[in-house]
Design goal:
single chain, mainly alpha, Ferritin, 5 helices, elongated
Length: 156
């Protein structure tokens, strides 16, 4: 890739890209899990959860593109395989057959895991004086916090 000159040092761009790669891996894994649950949810809250899961996975599909493009803008390669995501992600895929309550509980926890990963990247962005990455991560945190709340509300 040609030289990147955005006012951020090569070291800061690398740290930010590494952090964003973890957010990308968490987000993509959560996308896959949410889509899985959308297809496979059953029970008395089927329609509401089917629709909620769809809204959330569609948001994640757009988010992963924005995050990957930010990594590329910083001059680094975005991870793009299940193998890479598996090594980077704190969110874990689900190969079991949970009931609707387990699905909701797991997705709420995973949404909060992504918030934590975003929070780590915001710290890096502050240290590097990178308001663009900071803004992207703050927006994602807001979405994931709200999603976790909406999911937990189904368990009340």
């Amino acid at each position: 890739m040609s030289q990147v000159n955005t006012g951020l040092s090569a070291e800061d761009r690398k740290k930010l890209a590494d952090g964003l790669s973890r957010v990308l891996a968490d987000s993509y894994t959560l996308y896959l899990k949410t889509h899985n649950y959308h297809w496979n949810v059953e029970g008395p809250n089927f329609q509401a959860l089917h629709n909620l899961f769809e809204d959330q996975y569609k948001d994640l599909a757009e988010a992963v593109d924005e995050i990957a493009e930010r990594i590329r803008t910083l001059g680094h390669r975005a991870p793009a395989s299940y193998t890479e995501f598996g090594k980077l992600a704190a969110v874990r895929e689900d190969t079991g057959h949970p009931d609707w309550q387990q699905m909701v509980r797991q997705l709420a926890e995973d949404q909060e895991t992504v918030v934590g990963t975003c929070r780590q990247v915001i710290k890096l962005a502050h240290e590097a004086d990178d308001p663009v990455t900071d803004h992207i991560m703050a927006d994602r945190m807001q979405v994931h916090e709200k999603n976790a709340w909406m999911l937990r509300a189904h368990l009340s």
